[in-house]
């Protein structure tokens, strides 16, 4: 049973390196605590309310050497964490499989906010921008955050090749195609949704970009992509879905080139500090309806960078520039149009909740407990 298993984990924790203790702490937080296993584990027995009577614990020393126990312990932690994350990832894939077609019909190929703030463009005014123009402006601002143009020119001059970009959470490939075209880049897009990959490939073919873009179903926490492969990792309104942020950043660092690699990321965050009860309730509903783990602040994201191998960074708040009330208000109104309402009802409960969550997102931005965070993280080994 689980009680015996967790008691074994508790005993094994005493034999492993301190870093494994933090893994155990994450396990406790992920599973809502050990359910009293530690309190009932006494003198090698498990009793109390475990339903196991007085089953004797195995002699830990008989299970193998210390190194063997360390390996078993770490495998155990990874298996439990993987099992906990899998339902969330399956829900995310199903969520986007179901809703991407409705989004594309109403808003086009880009599945993210727009930018209405200061811009280098002289051709567009924030007051007259269409939603699609604002979405392109957000990508321009994110590319500026990552200084992609300067890096592209440096790579072409010094290495004679195209810049390589990984688009994590690529959706139907809107940003990937824009990056490939704008920066003459080779772009790989990954998502959990098979439907999105299929559509992304179709749109890339229509745009004549099939040779410069690749789209695959992969998990951002364990992508299987090569080490030191990409110059830039691009993450646009995707990281809020990640349940294990340290693992995510470590995986990103692994794939980035150590010479000059950087992450350009825009993600939904909560405000720093304590939340009021109504704010907590709103975020909990959004998390349930949009398949999100526990929210973190942009400051928390930044604090995780150095342990993953990135240089310290200062996060930015782009909330004032994205007109979130307009954006989420439009989504709410659009979801009530007959053709979309019937589509959401056809999807079922998750579709209806997705529409309702738009109201809570608008409320969160209005009350300033939801923040549109932007971060650039450079690998610590990178040279200016």
Binned, the helix content reads: 40-55%
Whole-number mean pLDDT: 78
The coarse overall form would be globular
Q: Total strand count, please?
A: 10
Give the H and E element order. HHHEEEHHHEHEHEEHEHHEHHHE
Instruction: Determine the structural class based on helices, strands and strand pairing.
Output: alpha/beta
Work out the radius of gyration. 23 Å
Count helical runs: 14
| Largest sheet report | 7 strands, mixed
Lateral arrangement of strands in the main beta sheet: 6-5-4-7-8-10-9
The proportion of strand residues reads 5-15%
**What is the distance, rounded to the nearest whole angstrom, between the alpha carbons of the first and last residues?**
54 Å
Walkthrough of the structure:
The structure is a single chain. The protein contains 14 helices and ten strands. It starts with a helix and ends in a 6-residue tail after the last strand. Helix 2 (18-30) crosses helix 4 (66-107). The longest helix has 42 residues, at 66-107. The protein is an alpha/beta fold. The protein has helices at residues 2-13, 18-30, 37-40, 66-107, 131-145, 148-159, 174-182, 194-206, 245-255, 277-290, 298-304, 324-335, 338-347, 349-366, and strands at residues 41-42, 45-46, 55-56, 164-168, 186-191, 213-217, 232-236, 262-270, 316-317, 370-378. The chain has a seven-stranded mixed sheet, with helices on both faces. Helices cover 50% and strands 12% of the residues. Helix 7 (174-182) links the parallel strand 4 and strand 5 (186-191).
